[in-house]
Amino acid sequence: MVGTIVHQLTDGASPEEMKMAGLGSYYTDHGWGVYPQAASGFPFSASVLAVKGDAIADLQEDLAAEQKARATYEKLIDLCADDPDVIDPLRFLREREVVHFQRFGEALRGVQDKLADKKFYMNNMNFDR
Fold this sequence. Notes:
single chain, mainly alpha, 5 helices, 2 domains, elongated
């Protein structure tokens, strides 16, 4: 959605306008296309995804990612405080991150509760063969 907003804001801009807006080097590399990268220019890669295969570690990572996304949306909102056509979708995205954070928190509590349960074992005829 953020990529769509950027595309809509730059649609029809001339190369000179892109340069005046500080997007000259971006335009040189990508034209008016939306290229997933950090504000610093570092392109997206799968290396930013942290997966350990451990439910608690992975859920903690998910919680952190949601908070980072929420903080990014808040900063974007601060940067364009006078354009409701941009702010409204960013607020929606920010609130979605809050809900995701809450759901991941609930999942983490569920995993922790399950791990704290008293363990019991019973015969599994298929396993014991």
